[in-house]
Write a structure and sequence with these properties.
Strand content: 5-15%
CATH class of the largest domain: Alpha Beta
Helix content: 40-55%
CATH topology of the largest domain: TIM Barrel
CATH architecture of the largest domain: Alpha-Beta Barrel
Number of helices: 24
Oligomer: single chain
Number of strands: 15
Length: 618
């Protein structure tokens, strides 16, 4: 099992990298490898060569992907058409991956064919003299990031900082030390022109200049919808946000130049400020004088995780290039939010046309973002199967082959590719008059057993909606059950525990509503005394499984959020039992929440606070 190679004829950097990844192979028997570098920079060819395998590569570290394909028994020729082919992992919404676990990620990513990695950190890093920056967040030290960077370089992966240098800084500005200081414009946006803002930004950019050897840094600056409309307007009056934005960007470029860094920014606000609805994807007008003021050294990044047609990507990437003449970075996504397991349907449906849009527009830099909106509760290692597919699609001109991707995945992870994708149906697809939709499993998990806010919304799609959903989840659980011990990629036992909690919740509410409608007091008593403890245990089991997953991958900070949510959910089931007993005993004549039959619209918000209560104060 594993690989060996002709060391004397292998480039030293490849030899070193192979030593690092050699333990990751799960192929049967031994695969003997020879390597040959070619003048064709974009070429990767893997073929049998007598009793050995020959890997011909143009870009040095893609030899690692070639080694993995050979070990998988895959003969192929690939066009490594992207200069940047990377990932962005969200470390800003509770989970902060440990350096040791990220090294595991780096080995897998290098074998899959990824050469760039970003850890998205709004505030999860330590700054000198800034107690409340990254406070109680598991913030990284310079030494931790240097260690990650050094390891990544061995594998040919460039670590690129990904921060926020204008908006999305609510985790910092929430603390009174910053909220009351001159550097706050609004709840999430820094005060442009304030000296205090640039003192902080100097420290922020300096941290990453010291930590990573890359000459690139992603400064963020997206979704600053209220730029200049808070304290800035109070002090200065109204100013066109285009002008504020560009002025700030120039200041940042000066700091980056001082540190030898080339800046990248998300480019949505140039398109948003150009129309009254601040739409990123709709018609917009960006004045020529605004474009002329965008520093030419800035690479803008077009992010789009939503469209299913390649022409949209091609058009927007062309428009992105026209902002300042710099070739853009495309940011697609592996759909890890707000889900317990990667939604592969949406991922495949958006990544394929995105890659085609890149080809049409001549875009050669792409990252796949992995966001953690509303708390980062996804089993993030479920991304690796979609990443195996995305690389295959990227390097074969859109002619992806899932058999090839599955063989590579099994070799690197020792796990079943198709089961990993199948588990994505935890986010259960269903048809509506407007097209395909998905049941958001997390919303169902948070749904209150008495109020049923999410329950009522989905009932809009049919009176038997939940009966059908329960049958499908039960069938998925039965299919995954025999493979619970498979943990090479996403942990399938965790997937099963999620399904057990969901099915317990749905089955209980169906039984509760039926018994309540019939005023079947013996059955209601049985639900209170026997069934509620079973649901509570299923929720507790999910909590234990989540904790196990958490400490496999992340620093301890942030786990408290899920534990608070689940403790609250168990207590609400306890309250449901109390209310049933009061009804059965005659203390009350009805349960108010179960009397409701609202005429809903079928709209489910993804956020926890919108699903657990009708109150605003949570």
């Amino acid at each position: 099992m594993g690989i060996t190679w002709e060391r004397s004829a292998t480039a030293p950097e490849i030899d070193t990298a192979l030593d690092e990844v050699s333990s990751e192979f799960h192929n049967e028997g031994n695969c003997f490898l020879r390597f040959r570098q070619t003048a064709e920079k974009n070429r990767l060819a893997v073929k049998r060569d007598g009793g050995a395998w020959l890997v011909e590569y143009g870009k040095t570290f893609y030899a690692l992907r070639g080694a993995a394909l050979a070990a998988a028994g895959v003969e192929t020729e690939e066009d490594i058409c992207f200069d940047t082919h990377g990932i962005l992992l969200d470390c800003s919404r509770n989970p902060v991956i440990t350096p040791e676990r990220f090294k595991h990620w780096l080995r897998k990513l290098a074998l899959l064919g990824y050469n760039t990695a970003m850890l998205y950190t709004k505030d999860a890093y330590q700054l000198p003299g800034e107690t409340y920056f990254g406070y109680m967040r598991g913030a990284y030290s310079v030494q931790e990031m240097k260690e990650v960077d050094s390891y990544a370089k061995k594998l040919g992966v460039e670590m690129v900082a990904s921060i926020q240098a204008l908006g999305h800084l609510e985790p910092v500005l929430r603390w009174p030390h910053y909220a009351r200081s001159p550097l706050r414009d609004t709840d999430n946006v820094l005060m442009v022109d304030a000296p205090e803002s640039y003192e902080l930004l100097e420290k922020m950019i300096g941290f990453w200049a010291e930590s990573f050897s890359s000459s690139r840094i992603h400064l963020g600056m997206d979704e600053t919808h209220d730029l200049g409309r808070g304290r800035f307007m109070d002090r200065n009056g109204y100013e066109n946000p285009f002008h504020i934005y560009n002025r700030h960007l120039k200041r940042l470029c000066g700091i980056c130049q001082k540190h030898g860094l080339s800046p990248i920014i998300w480019n949505d606000m140039y398109f948003r400020y150009g129309n009254k609805t601040q739409s990123y994807y709709g018609p917009t007008e960006i004045p020529d004088e605004v474009k002329k003021e965008i520093p030419p050294e800035v690479q803008t990044s077009y992010w789009d995780y939503y469209h299913f047609a390649p022409e949209i990507y091609a058009e927007k990437l062309t428009a992105s290039r026209e902002l300042n003449g710099h070739a853009p970075l495309m940011a697609s996504a592996i759909r890890t939010w707000p889900v317990f397991w990667t939604n592969c349907d949406i991922t495949f449906g958006t990544v394929r046309p995105c890659l085609e849009g890149c080809r049409r527009s001549g875009t050669h830099d792409i990252i796949y973002t992995m966001w953690g909106d509303d708390g980062g509760f996804c089993e993030f290692e479920s991304v690796f199967a979609p990443l195996a597919w995305a690389a295959d699609c990227a390097f074969h001109g859109g002619k992806d082959d899932e058999t090839r991707a599955a063989a590579l995945y099994r070799t690197i992870f020792g796990a079943d590719y198709s089961l990993q994708l199948k588990a994505g149906e935890i986010e259960q697809p269903f048809e509506t008059p407007d097209g395909k939709n998905w049941i958001m499993a997390a919303a169902v998990m948070w749904d209150d057993p008495l109020m049923g806010i999410v329950w009522h919304e989905y009932r809009h799609f049919g009176e038997d909606f939940w009966e059908k959903a329960l049958v499908k989840w039960q069938a998925l659980l039965a299919e995954l059950q025999p493979h619970r011990n498979e943990t090479g990629g996403g942990d399938l036992d965790h997937a099963c525990v999620i399904l057990e909690a969901l099915t317990a919740k749905v089955a209980f509410r169906l039984a509760l509503l039926d018994a309540y409608r019939k005023r079947d007091l013996p059955r209601l008593t049985e639900l209170a005394e026997k069934e509620i403890p079973k649901v509570q245990e299923a929720v507790a089991a999910f909590g234990r499984s989540f904790r196990k997953m958490w400490f496999r991958s992340y620093k301890s900070w942030g786990l408290e959020i899920m534990q608070i949510k689940l403790a609250g959910l168990r207590e609400r089931y306890a309250e449901c039992g109390r209310r049933i007993r009061e009804l059965v005993s005659g203390k009350t004549a009805k349960i108010e929440e179960l009397e409701l039959a609202p005429d809903t619209m079928g709209v489910v918000d993804t956020r926890y606070r919108m699903n657990v209560t009708g109150s605003w104060f949570i």
